[in-house]
Sequence to fold (450 residues):
Amino acid sequence: MAETTSILEDRLSRIHSAMGEERLDAVDAVIADLEPAEIALLLESLPPTSRVRLWQRVPTEVDGEVLLHVHDEVRGTLLEDMDHEEIVAAAAALDTTDLAEIFEDLPQQVAEDMLRSMDELQRTRLEETLSFEEDSAGRLMRTDTIAVRGDVSLETVRRFLRWKESVPDNTYQLMVVDRDGRFVGVLSLARLVSHDPEMAVADLMDREVDSIRVDMKSSDVATLFQTHDLVTAPVVDESGLLLGRIVIDDIVDVIRENSDQALMNMAGLDEEEDLFASILPSAKRRAVWLGINLVTAFLAAWVIGRFEDALDKIVALAVLMPIVASMGGIAGSQTLTLAIRGMALGQISRTNSTWLLRKEVGIAAINGVVWSLVVAVLAVAWFGNVAIGIIIAAALVINMLAAGVAGIVIPLMLKRAGIDPALSGSVVLTTVTDVVGFMAFLGLATLFLL
Fold:
């Protein structure tokens, strides 16, 4: 990762230097050595003005591939800089699956012209792909699958492939179907060329193959590829009819996008947000969660205000109070992070959530007791008041237990309510640990010290 970052920094430095000195030939030289995905990463790493200038130097023959790899928001800014004919040409260079990914971002007139310029087969394939949910296997699959029947000989298949003269990229096996087009297995190219040509496909095909339902979520498809070490997999409908295939290249992109989404959502941001977007749109997006956090902060402040008399009389309470909230917040965030990760990987369900909750309560109890003793000793040594030490120790145990429970329960409740736990879990958790921590500490102090 460090080496990749260093390479990107070097390229950015060279691009900035060449643009500043108007050495466009040097800019072209940097771009010429890059793959479309690398050009996309460079574009995403530049401020808007420099981005537009670099985009103008990108060879037109790779425009479509670059547009495919940049985030949605960046793609929108690049499309704004292109004229009608350029967009049509760039989109026309993409296959059906890739075109479907950016089709809905195209200006309406361009999209209509694209559809009119396609032959009937291309248009039908695009419309079928767009009919599937955005985050489904149907959107990921390629329709360039080579399918053969199980009752034909290997020699017949070989003649068929010689007639085609080429096979689609990332083709390591042929799909085998029955007379009705239903998927029944796969025949590897290695077996095809290494066995007696008179043998039937059915005698050599592998029937124990994972097939993917066309409506399966893309995240679930990525998990299947990851856990079963798949390189390619057939896509079928509810009746088993072969529709296409998904290859590992497409899954790598899904895994990266899911990783970006999880990271950005933890901060309450959109994974498609442009790092170098204009100030006002960026400020507006972030203001929403800052406002939600402010409301929860006022709730915690209101709780503190209920114990104003205690704080006025015992200054030590004000000094020690943040420790209780902070320890609960850290303990809760550890549990929350593990829970969200487990949910993303499909490891947490109703069957094991109760066991996991008991485990986290146990961990919270052990850590609560250990650290409450440490804090109590320090508080007594600092203020010379044994009662304050006992009270802060009790409050710490209560808050860490609450944090352990909240770290598991909050993401489960949010998911059940249809809210992304990674997006809002930390805000809710902070509110819980602050309110419980302040109420426990100040409440106990009011009962036993005043």
